[in-house]
TRAFD1/XAF1 zinc finger domain-containing protein (Didymodactylos carnosus), 131 residues
Amino acid sequence: MGCKYEEQKYPESIVKALSALSFSCVNSKNGCLDPIPYNALYDHERYCGFRLKNCSGRKKEMIEKEIKDHEAICGFVKLYCNICETYYQRQHGHDKLDCVLGRQEHAQNEFKKCKEEYRQLEAEMQNKRRH
């Protein structure tokens, strides 16, 4: 037996009375001090710059409005090299030698794929010749 949820509509007079009130943001503990009218509370809390988010590097929880500046210097953030098509952590750096080694590894992997594909095609051709 399933439960059925039905959103209740409040009388306009109650919504109007609530709209006249200001509420604190759920992110006030993180520094958001904006007084928020009732009718804007839901959207504000979804997009508030004081929400907690994780750094893409260490997955450290921090205030969203500080993430961009933090990730610009965080050594644990992974960066992508378009030349050798590899990811590396900022703290480890990526110089020309790394790039050459990355391209070599990429070429070796591609060669292995081609070699395996060639073996499969060769096996298919031999099977067709037998039949």
User: Anything to note?
Assistant: The two ends are 59 Å apart (CA to CA). The longest strand covers residues 78-81. Helices lie at 12-19, 41-47, 64-73, 96-130. The chain is about 45% helix and 15% strand.
